[in-house]
Design brief:
Chain A: Belongs to the globin family. The structure holds two protein chains of two kinds. By secondary structure, chain A is mainly alpha-helical. Chain A is about 70% helix and about 0% strand.
Chain lengths: ~150, ~110
């Protein structure tokens, strides 16, 4: 089980409480598809992904980004039990979606950059530490049921 | 980087790594200046960074995984400072650039 200090929990929950899940989720997923274009391989049914502008404005990308980040919120609510929280989702990503777990790491790093751009100097090094730890734990939990 | 990824501190046992350390500031400046050289020679990174490449391969031998960690932290700092000016396109270009620099730094490792 992951150990979280009281400070880490506070840094995570206080940042999360100020996040606009819809905007942030859309931004993070769009950036994943823009910064690492090969990740578009999972979204051939999403329509126009031909340019950064198209991706940023694509309603399916935005909706899916929101869905993904909403799910991320479950980790924030269950910091002491992230493994169990993502057990089913892990199976889904392996058996149905066939997503390489490396993509979870990529998205986690991008999410942090989006948070940094949004929160500016409020996103302190201590904040980054706690959030890098969180995205790493989430990525690990999502990869855990792969076989 | 030292805060977000404590394992990176193992390469600097000889430094004072407290926040605000003069040694860290000086070294950070050195690294960023080298990135500046890279930016100016973006179409010829291998040649422009040849000496640094040798240094990292034969002398420093920093595990290449750490280049990615510094890249992440550098981009976090850029995002903090540029806010919405750190657009998706700028982000993509910078990530690609830092990745290319990292490749060059590691190219003589073996």
């Amino acid at each position: 089980m992951v150990h979280w200090s009281a400070e880490e929990k506070q840094l995570i929950t206080s940042v999360w409480s100020k996040v606009n899940v819809e905007e942030c989720g859309a931004e993070a997923l769009a950036r994943l598809l823009i910064v690492y274009p090969w990740t578009q391989r999972f979204f051939s049914s999403f329509g126009n992904l031909s340019s950064p502008t198209a991706i940023l404005g694509n309603p399916k990308v935005r909706a899916h980004g929101r869905k993904v980040l909403t799910s991320f919120g479950e980790a924030v609510k269950n910091l002491d039990n992230i493994k169990a929280t993502y057990s089913k989702l892990s199976e889904l990503h392996c058996e149905k979606l066939h997503v390489d777990p490396e993509n979870f790491r990529l998205l986690g790093d991008i999410l942090i950059i989006v948070l940094a751009a949004h929160f500016a100097s409020d996103f302190t090094p201590a904040c980054q530490f706690a959030w890098q730890k969180l995205v790493s734990v989430v990525a690990h939990a999502l990869a855990r049921r792969y076989h | 980087m030292f805060s977000a990824y404590p394992s990176t501190k193992t390469y600097f046992p000889h430094f004072d790594l407290h926040h605000g350390s003069e040694q860290v500031r000086a070294h950070g400046k050195k690294v960023v200046n080298a990135l500046g050289v890279a930016v100016k020679s973006i179409d010829n990174l291998s040649q422009a960074l040849s000496e640094l490449s040798n240094l990292h391969a034969y002398n420093l031998r920093v595990d290449p995984v750490n280049f990615k960690l510094l890249s992440q932290c550098f981009q976090v700092v850029l995002a903090v400072h540029l806010g919405s000016d750190y657009t998706a396109e700028v982000h993509a270009a910078f990530d690609k650039f830092l990745s290319a620099v990292a490749s060059v730094l590691a190219e003589k490792y073996r």
